[in-house]
What we know:
Chain A contains 5 helices and 9 strands, in the order βαββαββαββαββα. Chain A is of the alpha+beta class. Chain A is elongated and about 55 Å long. Chain B has 3 domains: 2-181, Thiamin diphosphate (ThDP)-binding fold, Pyr/PP domains (Rossmann fold, 3-Layer(aba) Sandwich), CATH 3.40.50; 190-349, TPP-binding domain (Rossmann fold); 367-539, Rossmann fold (3-Layer(aba) Sandwich), CATH 3.40.50.970. Chain B is built from 23 helices and 22 strands. In chain B, the strands form 5 sheets. In chain B, strands 3-2-4-5-7-6 form a 6-stranded parallel sheet, with helices on both faces. In chain B, a hairpin with an 8-residue loop joins β21 and β22. In chain B, α1 runs parallel beside α7 (136-148) and α16 packs across α17. The A-B interface holds A 10, 14, 17-18, 21, 25, 55, 58-59, 62-63, 65-71, 171-172, 174-176, 179-181 and B 117-118, 121-122, 125-132, 135, 138-139, 142, 146, 150-151, 174-180, 182-183, 303-305, 307-309, 312.
Amino acid sequence: MSHVLVIYTDDEPGVLTRVAMLFRRRGFNIHSLTVGPTERVHVSRMTVVVDTDEATARRAVEHLRKLVNVLEVQQLGHGRNVVRDLALLRVSTRQGRSEVLQLVQVFRANVVDIADDSVVIECTGSLGKIEALVDSLRPFGILELGRTGAVAMARGERSEASNRLAASAVEAPGSSGAMSV
Amino acid sequence: MDRTGAQIIWECLLREGVETVFGYPGGAILPTYDAMTEYPIRHVLVRHEQSAVHMADGFARASGRTGVVVATSGPGATNLVTGLATAMLDSIPLVAITGQVGSGLLGTDAFQEVDITGITLPITKHNYLVTRAQDIAPAIREAFAVATSGRPGPVLVDITKDAQQGRATLDWEGAAPTRHLRHIPPSPKQVDLDRALAMINAAQRPVILAGHGIQLSGARAEVLALAELAQIPFAETLLGLGAVPASHVLSLGMMGMHGESWVNQAIQEADLLIALGMRFDDRVTGRLKEYAPNALKIHVDIDASEINKLVPVDVPLGGDLKQVLQAMLPAVKAADHTPWLERIRSWRGDSAVRDIKNLPDDGHLYAAHVMHDLWKITKGEAVVVTDVGQHQMWEAQYYHHDGERSLITSGGAGTMGFALPAAIGAKLARPEAEVWVVAGDGGFQMTFAELMTAVQEGVKVNIAVINNGYLGMVRQWQALFYEGRYAATPILSPDFVKLAEAFGIHGQRVDKRSDLAVAVALARQQPGTALIEFKVEQEDSVYPMVAAGAALHDMIRRPSPSPIAETGSDPV
Ligand SMILES: Cc1ncc(C[n+]2csc(CCOP(=O)(O)OP(=O)(O)O)c2C)c(N)n1
Ligand SMILES: [Mg+2]
């Protein structure tokens, strides 16, 4: 069963190592991990998809809360989330460029580069959609595939975690900025 | 005022209330050592950096204060690793400061450059790499805050040589830490408190599992109030010994692998377990599937990630133990569990026939005798610092600890070599206390160079080396589970009396129980550190024993009748 965790952390060198180390150390299986900036300066946001049972996912949350650099952790409920992955695929067009382009249209993906006998396709979507596109294109020959891993957000109102984060914005930014490992 | 980074380090330590640090100098930390002489802080020069951490650890365990370590980069820093892991597993607040190569050299494999923050990531609560003088104060202040808040633990601050040499203004207020309080303490939900209370008030066969968290939270009075009010007996983990008094009528004794048989049986038959500041380590649960099958379980711990980690519980109470108990106590109903207490007492009677006090002296010296007699002679009032092995378990069984912080031992890591340095640290923290080292012939040989540290620092500890000629605990496993093949467990020792002499301390050898009291008295009278080698029965084993992976009630008992006891019974 996959669980989606959203982790807000200090934007400091080494924080990714701390989070990754925690998952490795506790034997939690990471399916994907993405990290990037947020609406607040000095705060990063990670989306981690883990393959595990509910109890283990909850323990992962408690472990993450123990990291000094973690501001908030949110475990997304099932079904009520927007989960998006970006894929870039270089696909051979030797067996028919038009068929490939047709599939691109069906999946509402984009062609972002064209070479003599291949194209680069960009596709954003749920994990399922991307997997379906990959499966459909496989017979044509996928020469290269790169995926970002999931970025996720709960649907509906602003999440409690994000609210708490905004409320704590007055908190002095980590005074020891940019020196943690 | 403008200061060097090195001065800021000492100034911060002073303001954190530090009076003693344990360390060893070297190139990358030299600027800091050079500045040290300007500050009224005692530096204890160790003989190996691992011992510096154990000393700081013993200092912290004995006093509740934060232990401080200073070491240089590279090998100085890597020598800290075992000590940090030991402190991490037992939740001991430490701050270790290491020198690092200049920031311009970071990442170049410079002389004595080691990525110590990378290495210590999983064995510290948090760590820092500081490359500028102005970042030193915030890092050190936060390090102390992190080390002591929530579930305590070690923190490492790695400071480059140029940061120590650079200049900055010390802005103490501006460096006040905040991040350590982001998630602690967790507070339990009211519904869960209510459910816990309902279970406690309805229980027929309740048992409190008393752990190290009682000590760390300072919750002894609350735990005893709960136990006395509802007449709930309590069993201790190894690190829970002394957190609650052994002589209390409701105290059952130690649980687990070498716990008392009646204690393990009580846990297995309980209808309610109230786990207070303990973490269901495999050494106390035995096989998880068969652990306390009839009991509802309430678990109070400040570290919410410990709850439901190994044993699924019915009521999770994440929070500070003292606060949680204070919230619950007004609603706890007075109860009478006489039938349950009687039943446990009857199991206890079954062990009494094997008790050391009820058996004649057969002329041999047994480690258990040594512990029992030492407990009697010191009236149970010493601070005992044990190493790891059979002697550690016998100490836990036969030296009954009433006082808080009176047993110092490496529980989670089981680090051999811990005792002597930790005892030196403990004595420095509590100079008025009588401190005893109880170490095996194996573990003592790992760190006995620290005898010289004790001499140089004028520290008096009393040392009992339990010499059985073996790495006894491993030999015991070989005897029980490897058909007696003693691979690499016979161990030779130097002449400990001569060794003591070489270090300039008092040394004695005892091989008869009848000589014990006189030797102990003589050792206690010495103004300086004194060592007694006890030559004990070589192939004795610790009983009872729950084999690794066996169910908790499935205990290997001492073959009876036996010349010596299985475990100590009532501490009278
Ligand atoms: C640093 C370290 N190495 C190895 C072990 C494994 N070990 C646990 S107990 C033990 C034997 C200890 O022998 P000794 O110090 O003589 O004590 P005894 O068991 O004989 O009382 C060993 C080797 C350990 N706990 N720590
Ligand atoms: Mg031995």
